[in-house]
Amino acid sequence: MAKVTELVQGLAAPMAAAQGCSLWDVEYVREAGQWFLRVYIDKPEGVSIHDCEAVSRPLSDALDQADPIEGSYVLEVSSAGADRPLKKPEHFEQFIGAEVEVRLYRPADGRKDHVGTLLAYQDGDVTIAAPQGERTFPKKDVARVRLSVRF
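^ that's the sequence the OP posted. Answer follows.
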């Protein structure tokens, strides 16, 4: 049987596309005793609250009809955000040349967090150009990669 997130992706992707958006990611997580189904959408000119609502309403109806989740949960539809996590190969490909933050499970060079320009992503390994030079982090060491935002 498919995972909840995969089932929801299949429902949400065409609904996002119908609103001129793309589906970025789906999470199904438990926080403080409550289940949350989070659907992240994106579009080149940015996501508005109206986009979120336009995807949320029909998705909620489709989820009620398909009933892929036992028990109660909170549905949230939102923008992927400026500091969005990069999880899928296509996410990394889209942001080659962008500044990213790489968080490691264990420190490397005395730090868990490394910031630099994303140069490559291959089989889960992440290569960045940082002030200290080019660095490749093996997949097994990488906890999270997200876009870096500076104000």
